[in-house]
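# step 3/5: fold
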Amino acid sequence: MNIKDFYKEYKNQLSICTDTRKLKKNDIFVALKGDNFNGNEYAKQAIENGAIVAIVDEDKYKDESNNIYLVENSLTFLQKLANYHRNQLDIKIISLTGSNGKTTTKELIANCLMKKYKIAFTKGNLNNHIGVPLTLLSINKYHELAVVEMGANHPNEIKELCKIANPDYGYITNFGKAHLEGFGSAEGVVKAKSELYDYLRKSKGTAFINNDDNKQIQQSEGIQKITFAFENKGDYNFSRILREGKAGVSFNNVTIQSNLVGNYNQNNIAVAVSIALHFGIDINEIKDAVENYIPKINRSQIVEKNGRTIIMDAYNANPSSMEVALKHFSYYDGTKAVLLGDMFELGKYSEEEHCKVLSLVKDLNFNEIYLLGDNFYNCAKKQDEHLHAFRNREDFQEFIINHPISSQSILVKGSRGMQLEKINLD
């Protein structure tokens, strides 16, 4: 099916759905396939439930009399449709990627820009080869700016997402040890994330750069830049503020105090402020946007429970984010406990990185240490058999029934798949 003709026919009803459970009347249903599902099987049901048209990529499901049309590959069709739609829009797109802090930074940027503009932005963390096209297709003629998050766990993914989104601006939060299994090494991470810079360099776009990060400076050579900094000089210069463990910044004598835990969030706040200032938003409006942003569940979320402070940071974890979270937590007053779950997608580096984190944990002298998952369990048995290490949540949950955590503050951090938020710490 020709993208241009399809777009002309349906551009006024460009609401895309890939899941019949979430289908609304007059949606366009695109049948995608995965390891454990085949969306083609639901095309007829989608039409019966109110879809205006369905796109399939297996011939036996085609039924043009019922507006079920065949394409060679449904995912490719979705991506090409998103790119075509993006190119019809007179709108600036800000894309961001990085190893840590993408979603928090994206939401801070969007909250600030909303003070002046109608904003489209990535919902949740729908930042992959499906999520980015869906974000682009959600942009309508009333939007004035868009913020698109891009995630990747293999080389060339950011490159392909840039081809779809055609960003005008870009920002890389940092280069950390995330998805080492897919990228092959820390150097592979830098090269893959820098695909955003490569695109901006060729397209004459603009990069927002942390001028305190030598790797960002080095990788962004030859690109038009807007810079921010705390220690060095930038177009926008900030001072750091940390109150009761929560990150804040100061700009031109205006103090901006967030609800985000950890000094590592200061860069995220600073770039959001810088981008908003670049787009002409008043600093006091920006202050209001940042200070009223509440982090989503399990993302550096503070929970006060039974007289204790729980820092629930269980949405994701990698060696870099573990290190900064642990070092920040070590400065808390009073007794401190850490509950750490395994970090995923580290491949051949898994044992080495888990053991490095465990060594750091021991060096920081926390009052109580609890480790969950096979990787931490194996490292604990090698380093110190007296550590509290458990292969799964269930074993840990049973243990603390008779041995409750007594510390005043508890840091909970691990990869999403560990589902640490399900643990009852009462």
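# step 4/5: annotate
The mean pLDDT is 92.
# step 5/5: archive (pending)
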